[in-house]
Amino acid sequence: MDHLLVVNAGSSSIKFRIYAVLPGDRLDLDLKGAFDGIGAHPHLFADDDHGRRVEDDAFTAGQVPTVAAALDRLDDWLLERLGGERPVAVGHRVVHGGPDFANPVPVDDAVIAKLEALVPLAPLHQPNNLLPIRIIRDRLPGVPQVACFDTAFHRGHPDVADRFALPEALYREGVRRYGFHGLSYEFIAHRLAEIAPDLAKGRVVACHLGAGASACAMVDGRSVESTMGFTALDGLPMATRTGQLDPGVVLYLVQAKGLGAAAIERLLYRESGLLGLSGVSADMRDLEASREPGAVLAIDYFVHRIVREIGALAAAMQGLDGIVFTAGIGENSAALRARVMERLAWLGLVADPAANARRDTVVSAAGSRVQALVVPTDEEFMIARHTLATLRAMAPAG
Ligand code: ADP
């Protein structure tokens, strides 16, 4: 049986999947797991195809301080799980594809060099995305690897959504509004076509609300505008990232406070967002459980900015037929969804509180002019599909 390996290496976690490739290129999940809490409370766990936990191992931060250290432990373990067999291909999530990559690509040395050059545009993610590609190239030479990009789904944006109002030369050298979370949005578009085909053809704002957060305007399943821009800092506030910020603040930090690039990067990526606003936690569960004024403010701000962005994206599409909640907060926080939906009543959204509390797929009321859905995202499935399709395009089945 052929197997496909999917690796999604983030800033503090590595998610992985093994799929069996069945006749007709149907993908059957064999193993699903993650190494999370890297550098803090490292935890390796995996479930088999029956949902049974087959691995559950905790480590100290000193044992697994970095994503590289986690990969070191993980690659032997994964190869063992594959029973010594080589996977037919390995698919990777790569956050930034820059202006050149509008589709998944087979990885070679030239591709790696191009992706390496994009590290400054995604300093939290890109280096960790490239690490497993290099390790697997060395350990499993000859096994095709495919890079799947978070920016690719947005590359069809109209010109006005792809630009900043900066001189043309900067646009040409790549200073563009790329947009991110594309694999998640692509999966949402794919899933909507199955579960709500009419809505899938309409105007939808999908809200990916996790540790990273963004919203994407989709018309007929295609991204037309997104809240994220040049880097994954723009748009909605996130666990520790600012979201939209007047660039004048950065000038102030440089000119009036003498901050250097490293200090500003730390502030914008790691010390801001829900953590910075609340002074309590970066984690929505902690904020919802807290009565600290900072925690209340952070949630209020999050809701305010989500609603503001949905309004802006609806204007960009000249109307709105539905919204989708996804990712950790979007899928799990009924309270957050309720507050967002309440503030979209003016657009014609009527919530169904009981359905929302139960986390039904449809959480708007029957007859609501704007529908609201909860759709669990599955970036790894999207990567597996792209990887297999790319593999088939490389070597058509005989
Ligand atoms: P990542 O971007 O790292 O994949 P996730 O999509 O897993 O992040 O989202 C993490 C966020 O989801 C955290 O803020 C976490 O608090 C939040 N979350 C998870 N479960 C719940 C829940 N039951 N209620 C509220 N928030 C939740």
UniProtKB/TrEMBL annotation:
Q: Where is the active site?
A: 150
Q: Where is this site: Transition state stabilizer?
A: 181, 241
Which positions does UniProt annotate for substrate binding? 93
**Which is one GO molecular function term here?**
ATP binding
Alphabetical UniProt keywords: ATP-binding, Cytoplasm, Kinase, Magnesium, Metal-binding, Nucleotide-binding, Transferase
Residues the entry annotates as binding Mg(2+):
8, 379
**Principal subcellular localization:** cytoplasm
Name the Pfam families on file. Answer: Acetate_kinase (PF00871)
The annotated pathway is: Metabolic intermediate biosynthesis; acetyl-CoA biosynthesis; acetyl-CoA from acetate: step 1/2
InterPro entries recorded: Ac/propionate_kinase, Aliphatic_acid_kin_short-chain, Aliphatic_acid_kinase_CS, ATPase_NBD
Q: What does this protein need as cofactor? A: Mg(2+); Mn(2+)
Catalysed reaction(s)?
acetate + ATP = acetyl phosphate + ADP
- Return the GO cellular component terms, semicolon-separated: cytosol
GO biological process terms on file = acetate metabolic process; acetyl-CoA biosynthetic process
As for subcellular location, the record says: Cytoplasm
PROSITE patterns with a match to the protein in the record? ACETATE_KINASE_1, ACETATE_KINASE_2
State which Enzyme Commission number(s) the record gives: 2.7.2.1
HAMAP family per record: Acetate_kinase
Q: Member of which family?
A: Belongs to the acetokinase family.
Q: Which PANTHER family match?
A: ACETATE KINASE
Q: What does this protein do?
A: Catalyzes the formation of acetyl phosphate from acetate and ATP. Can also catalyze the reverse reaction.
Q: State the protein's name.
A: Acetate kinase
